[in-house]
C-alpha cells in the first residue's frame, strides 16, 4: 500500500511537537510543557455567542471567505491595534492558521519553486512547501534568533527565492520583529521580486510596546500575505479559526484554494470570534499579563539553573540552549521525560537551527511550571 502514497507525502513527517506530545501520554505523572494550548478557558461571551448561533440555526455554510461581520471586525481590529490596513474584501476566514498557511502556500507554489524559511521555525512551513513539491531554502538567524540581515540579503541575491517566510512573534524562540528589522526588510524586498508570507498568529501576545509588521507598509502590500488566527488569542485551539489577509489581486486565488479544501470555516466558531473581537479584548490582555508573569518566572528559574537563554518578547515559548549538556536535543528531552518526568520539545523539531535547544511552552498553569522547574532542577544536578 505504501507505494500508493505520493512522493511529496513520503517526504514529510508528523510534526516533532506532536511526536513528543504523544510520548507524554505513556508516562504517568509527567508534566507536559509541550504544545501551545493555553490553560485558559474560552471567554464566556464567546461561548454564549456560539450557543446563540446554534440556537439561531446559524449552522449552514457561510460564504467561502467567511461572514462579513467577522471580516469587518478583523479589518477594524488590525487597523486599530496593529496599524495594518486590509478591508473586508481582502480577508479570508480559514480553518485555523494551519489551513490559512496551506491554502496560501498552495496558491503560490509551483513544483520546484524556492521558498526561504528561517531555521529554527514552526515546522508547518517546511512541510507545506514540501507537500507542494517546492524547494525549501533555510536562512539562519543570529544567536539571539534575530534576523541576520546581511546573510538574508546574500541568500536572496544568490537563490532568488519566489517566497520568503517571516514568523513573529516567533514559535519556538519568542523573538519579535523590531522597528529596525521591519525597516531593513522593507528596503530589502521593495525592489525585489519576492512574496512574503508573514505568520503573525501570536500578534496579540506581543510583550513589547509597539508592534511591528511588514504588513504595515502600503506600498509593498501586494508582496505581503498575512496569516493569523484566534487559537492562541482566545485560547480556542479546538474551534479551528484563523484568517489570511492579502491584496485584492491575490485574495480571490487564495479563496479559490480554500473553497476546494474546506468550503468555509465553521460557522459557529466564526460567530464566536466575532463576539470575541467585539467584547473580549480585555480578557486577551489579562491572558497576556499572566503569560508575562509565567515567562518571568520560568526565565529566572532557568537562569538560576545555569541555562543560557534569551528573554522571550512574545508568544508563550522559551528556547533555552542545552549545548552545555553534550547531548542532542532529542536525547535531552527523552531523558528529561523518562528521568525527571518533564516533557519538552527537542529544538530539532524546528529544523537544523533548533538543534542544541529545547522548547518549553509556558502557557500552562503556574503550578505545572513550578512542578516542572523543581523536577528539572533536581534532575540537572545529577546529569
Ligand atoms: C507559528 C504558528 N503558526 C500557525 C499555527 C497554527 O495554529 P492554528 O491552526 O491552531 O490556528 C501555530 C500553532 O501552534 C503556530 O505556532
Ordered list of secondary-structure elements with their pairings:
Blueprint: H1 7-10, H2 16-24, E1 31-32, H3 44-55, H4 68-82, E2 91-94, H5 96-108, E3 114-119, H6 124-131, E4 135-140, H7 149-159, E5 163-167, H8 179-190, E6 195-199, E7 224-229, E8 242-245, H9 248-262, H10 267-279, H11 281-304, E9 317-318, H12 329-340, E10 342-343, E11 345-346, E12 358-361, H13 366-382
Parallel strand pairs: 1-10, 3-4, 3-5, 5-6, 6-7
Antiparallel strand pairs: 2-8, 7-8, 9-12, 11-12
Helix pairs in contact: 3-10, 4-10, 5-6, 5-9, 11-13
Keywords:
383 residues, alpha/beta, Aspartate Aminotransferase, domain 1, Aspartate Aminotransferase, domain 2, 2 domains, 7-stranded mixed β-sheet, 3-stranded antiparallel β-sheet, 13 helices, 13% strand, globular, binds pyridoxal-5'-phosphate
Alpha-carbon distance between the two ends = 44 Å
Second CATH tier, the architecture of the largest domain:
3-Layer(aba) Sandwich
**Count of runs of 4 or more consecutive helical residues:** 13
Uncertain residue segments: none
Bound molecules: pyridoxal-5'-phosphate
| CATH level-4 homologous superfamily of the largest domain | Type I PLP-dependent aspartate aminotransferase-like (Major domain)
What is the CATH domain class of the largest domain? Alpha Beta
The beta-strand count equals 12
Overall geometry comes to globular
Q: Strands of the largest sheet, in order across it?
A: 2-8-7-6-5-3-4
Main pleated sheet: 7 strands, mixed
The chain-level mean pLDDT equals 96
The helix/strand order is HHEHHEHEHEHEHEEEHHHEHEEEH
Pfam families: Aminotran_1_2
Keywords: Aminotransferase, Pyridoxal phosphate, Transferase
Domain Aminotransferase class I/classII large: 29-376
GO biological process, one term: amino acid metabolic process
